[in-house]
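[agent] plan:
  1. take the single chain provided in the ticket
  2. run structure prediction with default settings
  3. attach structure tokens to the ticket
  4. add a short note for the reviewer (M.T.)
[agent] executing step 1
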Amino acid sequence: MRRAKLEKELKEEHGEIPYEQTSVRELLTLMKDTTELIVDLAYAAAAFENRELAEEVRHLESEMDKMMYQIRLKCMLASRTMEAAEQMTGILQVASSTEKISDAAEDMVKLLDMDLNLRAILPHILSEADEKIHTIAIYPSSDMIGKAIGQLMIESHTGVRLIAVRRKNRWIFGPDADTKLFANDLMIVRGVESGCREVRDVAHGEMPWSEVIR
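[agent] step 2 finished; step 3 output follows
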């Protein structure tokens, strides 16, 4: 009966959601990674008033709801004893926390639908953070071209996280280690000013990557 009630609630909001064989551990890991991405995209959407990024935030928040449903369902099916139920409570608390973060990120991008004067102050508010959001274009003279993100190890060497890449008319959100960079790509990154400056210098062809990693 509990399963039927959950299915009804989720179907009303998202349509048919098939039961997945993914383990709770895998789901929690995926929710954690998705939460990190959705927060970065929400900040970028607000900072640059970018509706494409905002739309991806809304999409990811919807996916988080579906993952939360799967975890609730698995915990209910596994809670056959009081001891098991107590263990599942901790898992649900962790999952619920990540879902709340994603909900807050979605609320952030809703600011883009408000009065223009309100949106104008967002970049100034975000500029007070230690880590900044920047857009960095890759020039044809950059030695980043043709290299995979994992090969460059950008975050390890500079502390700068690559949030998204715009390539011509399409976006690559949360690019992975195998994603290669090409001339005229536009990167959205998050990090401290010194790290972002290094990435920008290399991306603009003003400094070789070997200078960063030496």
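[agent] step 4 note for reviewer: The chain has two domains: 2-116, 130-213.
[agent] ticket updated
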